[in-house]
Amino acid sequence: MQMSEGVSGHPGTLLLTARAHRHWGRGVIELFGEQDGDVRFSPTTQEKLADEATQSIIVAGRGSWSRALVDGAPPTDPGRLADAIAERLRVLGRPAVRVRAADFLRPASLRFERGREDPDARYEAWLDEGALRREVLDPLGPGGSGRVLPSLWDAAADRATRAAYVSLPEGGVVVVDGELLLGRGLPHEVSVHLSMTPAALARRTDEAWALPAYARYDAEVDPLAVADIAARVDDPRRPARRLSAIG
């Protein structure tokens, strides 16, 4: 990796060069999928990421509801960023509801039908996508009711949470955090993806069996490229904001 100053007007930008691609080899390919060209990052902070996402949500949802997805594997801690975004929205006078995708998982009998440690099942079948759409995202779309269910299923207890519905006035926002959220066609106005290199993710996870699910996600969806806002968080104290891909 080399430091490049003044690349496209971004001093201090981290440029992943072809040399870095050759040096890192397969790990980089797994992270960036088949993306052509190099990906540029600029150092940032968690606070600046939250500020940028908040502003994007406000711009996207003028006069109506907004839905934001904060996506990332558990070691990237997407919930922390989602909480910060929701707090900023409330300070700015925008009602915000926080939803965890982990509270919309299928019952254990369905999640573990192929075993408790099946990475393909985690990728394809753990999330109750239909319930998340029906109870959270669709009600905030055009013609929606604004009535949101904050949680549906307690995965640890394997039973319904019996949460009460929350009515959001127009201009309200739901901020959903979770893993493997993009590429499913879930309706939203703003998406944020927190990424780790395969090596960093392997070091920080306590669920090594799930690593193939994240590798498949990177290869099939390329969330680092498709998210509206994306950042590398190998070291959560020193995130790096994705700037662009260059050919």
From TrEMBL:
Gene3D superfamilies noted in UniProt: P-loop containing nucleotide triphosphate hydrolases (3.40.50.300)
InterPro entries found in the cross-reference section: P-loop_NTPase
Domain of life: Bacteria
UniProtKB keywords: Kinase, Transferase
GO MF terms, alphabetically ordered: kinase activity
Name listed for the protein in its UniProt record: Uridine kinase
Organism: Actinokineospora fastidiosa
Lineage: Bacteria, Bacillati, Actinomycetota, Actinomycetes, Pseudonocardiales
